[in-house]
Amino acid sequence: MSDSDNLQQYAIDSTKQLFAVDSLPLDTQQIIIWLEDKVYELLNKDFNALVNLLYRIDVYESKAKQCFGKENREIAKCLAQLIWDRQMEKAQRKYSGL
Fold first, then answer.
1. Which of 5, 29, 41, 66 is positioned for an S-S bond with 1, CB 3.0–4.6 A?
2. From CA 39, how far away is CA 34, in angstroms rounded?
3. Burial 37-59 (b: 16+ CB within 10 A, else e)
């Protein structure tokens, strides 16, 4: 398994754990679309759970704030990308020994 495969697998496993699911797509674009759907659902049904999730993932508040003020689908798309980027950042830190 290559380093990039290890990073992605770590990010996938962490994301599965966060959302309490057994599987995720393996393709990055499909994962982001999946995340977008989950974020959109939380945005519309349980905003507090979404905020708590962003806090647990440690998405940068300044970046998250930039996502708001748009239509909900656009907010979800923006936050989904931030979540995935943060998960990959954590994976890179883990595998770089930081």
1. 5
2. 9
3. ebbbebbeeeeeebeebbeebeb
